[in-house]
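Subgroup meeting minutes
Present: P.N., E.W., G.H.
Scribe: E.W.

1. P.N. recapped why we're keeping a running log of single-chain structure predictions: easier to compare across weeks, and new members can see raw inputs and outputs side by side.
2. G.H. added today's entry (226 aa).
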Amino acid sequence: MKVIALIPAAGMGKRMGADINKQYLLLAGMPIVARTISVFEQADFVDEIYLVTPSQEIPYCREQVVERYGFTKVRRIVPGGAERQNSVLNGLRAMADVSDDDVVLIHDGVRPFIPAGVLEHAVETARLHDGALVAVPAKDTIKVVTDGIVRETPPRENLWLAQTPQAFRYAIIRAAHEIAEAERYLGTDDASLVERMGKDVRIVMGDYRNIKITTPEDLILAEAFL
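Output recorded in log:
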């Protein structure tokens, strides 16, 4: 069974307020997305990498990221869609020579601090179960609010903050995305599409440093981590 990394990096990064898309911002001299790809490139158990970027950025990504840093596992750069969910489906459809039981690790292109050990645990969990969701327990009290009024305070011990990667066997995640596409359902993450099929997605303990770099403050924090 192969392990395939699918890295969506098609976001526009409006919250970053930069002149270029956030995935290409430099983090200690290296594009964020290149740092993310390098984690999977160096992981022995990952066989292939598929990137998803806006179609007009494919030449730039190929030249300035894949070729410049010598990433040999990248099989294809796939055009993104209108939403992240569309981009992931494009990536799944573009995969060649893939079997139903191959494991797909779907990971945000702007999360460069995912530990390799967490990746491996997610793969092992996905092989045994319907899916694996990397997450961390919520530290803060969460409030359910409607019209500015607190309606509920759910028990914190039941609340987890979803991260990526989210790992699934290919047949399961492909079916989940195709069903969502046919029913015009837009989920909040890939796991939610598998959950609505009645499948059991298992939690894999993540890392609080596995941040998604989306704001200028996140970039400062990322530099501190380095």
